[in-house]
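Handout, page 2. Input:
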Amino acid sequence: MGSPLATVRHRLAHLMPRPFQSRRQRTITALEFSGEWLKLARVEVSAKGKRRLRRLVARPVVLPEEIPKTFVDLVKEGVGAADSILISIPRNLVTVRNLQLPTTDPRELNEMIGLQTAKQTPYSKEEIISDFQVVRRSPEGFTDVVLITTHRSVSNRCLKILDDCRLKAAGIRLSSHGVRSGWQLLCGATKDAGRGPTAVLDIDSNFSDFLVIRSGTVTFTKALSIGSAKLSSGEANEIEKLTQEIQRAIDIYEGERIGQGIATLVITGAEVRARLVPRLGETLRLPVQRVSLVERLPGAREVLDVPEAQRESVSLTAVLGLAWDAESAGIDLTPQEVRIREALEHKGRAIMVTGILSVSILAALTALVSQHVYFKKQYLEQLDGEIARTQQAASDVEALKKRLKIIREAERRENSSLEILSVLHRSTPPEISLKSIAFDEDSHVVLKGVTQKMSTVFEFVSTLEKLPNFHQVKAKHATRSGSKDGSEEIEFEITCPLARKHEA
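Output:
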């Protein structure tokens, strides 16, 4: 019979492998289903928090119908069911608004956000998914928030692709937050963090994401229509158009008084023409620098899997940033019904585990009690056998003990008849002849006898009085009489009251 506690531990190890495994090591996968590309970044996080980039993939997609098949191929190449999967929604597929609301109370803030959401989009409340992030709370009682909305079909399409592969999303994020995380990764690696707000321009194939980062938070973001495809077309006016769009975004940022003025501009994402950087610096009058996440992140180039001809025309900053720092996004565009369903499933699993754990503990306790009762029963049966085998010998010993007890009690008894006779035998002088000894137990002794002299009687009384067995000894009478041989003798009777030993 195995240990009941070991059985419980064995069952729990099979019931809950993932929670214990996730504390040791986990893998985060970020996916982005954009119009022309399917992007993937896979980061392995050790138990000590050390991160390692395992895959960085981009696959061109000509038609939207090709996305599921392309994704299935990527899953076969190494996306596991145990991965924590995050979906990145491109910035050009969402609407972002900066709002200043006259409250700092969380409950009132949620109600105001609900009213503003319906005003900011032409769709009904049932057709959109929204979330918001608090940027700042002012002492005057105002709260600056970034409100993010997208059409429900965008999230549902991504979730369906995962569901067809029997995978579940851990969350749906905005690509701008991934770009922010990628920029922070670069700053942490190169110590290039600037003073004041930093503008980041992430250039993708068909659009660019302009965002302003302050104190690690995205305070402003705007999608620009110019991407690497137009910048690489060779038309000179495309750089001019991009410069104008960036300037308009900066004007909107400064006009809404979201924060301090921009201190520097960082360009990430797709490789662009070399003259773009000095042109932006001259026009915007800002320090402009071009950084490559793939080049600066150790090991990124070794795991990069992008067609050679298109390697410099796509941005992987968003998916890499989200996979590297999944916890700091701050928003989630997962549909509410999906969140409720997952919460119910999680609760159901928790109830099932709790029930199985309770049954296992009850079974273990029952086994322990049954085992204890079984051993007690076996021990009692063994004792009964021993008693039956030694019963006759025990009876003989008991009888002998009773006899010994009687004898010892007789020996130890105070002023017993044997003790009195022994005392009288030692104390009676030869001149006295005792004719009778009357013994009244626990009361007195009456001695009758004869002697030749009266003085002998009184001396005998004095002797008895000194013994511890008697007290207040008296000669009741002493008379002269003639004997058979004609001589004179004295008959006497002495009363000796018995004394307790503690009274002596």
